[in-house]
């Protein structure tokens, strides 16, 4: 084995190996098979196991070699060479059996030989534990594999650990000779781990610039599909132009890549019909049964070809459909195909894609065959793309726009079509493709307006998928260019710039953006008035002009009902949240999510889910898993919206911390930390930093919580709104730690905000904010020097919590109230509140908070029953979507009627079906195949006991 680079993203697998090694140290052996695709890191994991074993273990091993697969006992011969001394100590029959192998004339009976290997490992372990490994088991000769597996299944009573590593291109593949041995599937690396592998590879090449972030990193990580070997091979082949950004990123593995060569060899070994089938799948992403049947009639591709393609490991079969295994295989096969083979694949697909809904794809393949610029064909393609765009079928439209652009002669029209391709790729959740299209729209090939529109889209992508601090100047520049010709587009640019400034914690920049928006022409429809009111209201709130803020934000909320645009509804929901209007926040957020889903716009849906989840978490509702966060995290990861994914992780970490669930909070914080630091996601980092302080409070460590949240200038979070929202926790921590003066200073700032906005809201008729008022009252109760004043404020806080539906905040206040009453020598009154707190905490599985409530009850003189076994928390009484079937919390709200039995994926598909989406539309949205959607939908029907989409729609609505 060679010395490997650092191992990233394999904590679970390393832990499994460490457990096996620990058992071997204690005299209890075990065996494990590590299986995975070529290049996924099996050998690196074996090397890590050897390092983990250290000098305390004796390590022996062997490796399968392709040229020796047919040589009897070749692998065992390599393993036995270091064990000559132990072999000499074996009984004669066993010694002779192994001796014939070493002499090159194996003749022993299989059972005798296998028992000899078993006894040899036992002898080797007499002076200490042994680690025996076998790499590339798929190439071991059959006799060696059988003997080693025989021994591995019998080492439980010996200090011997046996590790096998085998290539397995199918997750359901039969382990063959390794049957009965525990199997660990080594999947692809996650995104963050892939980035670290890339940075290591570039550092090893001399610290070349360009390996940290940006389009190049996105392209390599996406293309490598989580295989570290692919990442290193791509990194090693990068040119200086690619590293500087002057040349486009690689589109396939380099020609000398072993992984690319493996794909090529596998395709060449296939029959001619199977080779054509594979290239059809490469060119068309997914082939349904009907398409393959037509191909069989047109081109003679038969069942034998299907079977051969299935065995090759190049394709993924899903029911009656087929697709290429992954993007790495796709790009490698296409790069090595000849021009004639590609043309034949396009021509065959143009012949077999005959359904009306397949027309855009058929035209796309016809255009690929044409090759040369052709304005007539380009116009036909553009018409098909526009139709797909209007129908929200962005997975089709962006590709057709792109093909139309490549066939267009006129530079201006070509630029417009590239822009349309980029916009539709972005709307369909393909940020990498959108960036690639935008690289075609650069001066001097485009005019100023086109360049400004490209900058607007580039900035939007950067906000959600890149670095918001980078997005701010791009969007502000786009706004300046557009202000004279398209005020609506300029305002769009400023709205997204304000979101980027807020995400990066740039309060000064946010205010400048709001001021620039105010200088735009005021005329316009409801959408423009809403955006101007939102920006102006938020800026006024930051500046402490509460009456102006309440008026403007109230206007934005009222206009939210008059606009259909989902992004505008998100901004209206944020305005309602700033005013503390929980019901309208939830309603507007739910409408925004549903609207974005109907339109098929993945980035806006992700943004709406992000805002819905964050607002729901901060409205004080039970900290059960928030459907919006889980849906949003899944969508953000699938569409590579890295900023949105980090925001969802921060919210999930915070809600888990509210509940005192340290394990869940840590699981969300771990991937958040690196992403937030690297991308400058100050808002996400602030909410993530708030979470450990909440865990300290739940664990009854108020001084630690105060230390995390307190800085000389106030609450120690780098994002202004997060600082304000966290003040009630800071006040509680400081009071419980005995620091009343600092607590009073912190509360003064919070009270100025809540009282100012509350009074202005009441004066302008925008409605009360009972949730915020309740927290303010709780702070006043904690700071009250007189028990009577404290009781008055606590009582009013409880009433306001109930009015707001903030159940978990209610329980926290009941606990604090009970504590104050007990210390005031009123145990009977304290017990009433402490019991109420305990009931809520137990209902939602808040174990640390339940423990605090029980301790207080015991101190108040009550005998407390032991805690009940944990049960899943009930669905929230209120939440985003519980009042509207299409909201992101609808799945949670349906627990009583069986909807809660679905997995998160099934629930998401069920909601889209209820909204009228077809299987193919859902497949395009979720980046899955229609066959997979059909499979999930059948499971939904089975679990819910229904038979049709109509019944499902009725159930959800």
Just give the CATH class of the domain at 11-186: Alpha Beta
Shape: globular
Spatial ordering of strands, largest sheet:
2-3-4-1-5
The overall pLDDT, averaged over residues, is 85
Domain HTH luxR-type: 895-957
Keywords: ATP-binding, Nucleotide-binding
Protein name: LuxR family transcriptional regulator
Region (Disordered): 860-895
Secondary structure blueprint with pairings:
Blueprint lengths: L10 H15 L4 E7 L5 H12 L4 E6 L10 H7 L3 H5 L3 H11 L7 H15 L5 E6 L6 H11 L7 E8 L14 E5 L4 H14 L10 H10 L3 H9 L3 H5 L13 H11 L3 H13 L1 E2 L1 H11 L3 H10 L2 E4 L2 E4 L2 H10 L2 H14 L6 H12 L4 H16 L3 H13 L4 H17 L3 H8 L9 H18 L2 H15 L4 H17 L3 H12 L7 H17 L3 H15 L5 H13 L3 H18 L2 H17 L8 H12 L3 H17 L3 H18 L2 H17 L3 H8 E2 L2 E2 L4 H17 L3 H25 L5 H14 L3 H18 L2 H17 L3 H17 L3 H13 L30 H4 L10 H11 L4 H8 L3 H15 L4 H8 L1
Parallel strand pairs: 1-4, 1-5, 2-3, 3-4
Antiparallel strand pairs: 6-8, 7-8, 9-10
Helix pairs in contact: 1-2, 3-7, 5-6, 6-7, 8-9, 8-10, 9-10, 12-16, 13-15, 13-17, 14-17, 17-18, 18-19, 18-20, 19-20, 20-21, 21-22, 21-23, 22-23, 23-24, 23-25, 24-25, 25-26, 25-27, 26-27, 27-28, 27-29, 28-29, 28-38, 29-30, 29-31, 30-31, 31-32, 31-33, 32-33, 33-34, 33-35, 34-35, 35-36, 35-37, ...
Pfam families: AAA_16, GerE
Protein name: LuxR family transcriptional regulator
Organism: Actinomadura chokoriensis
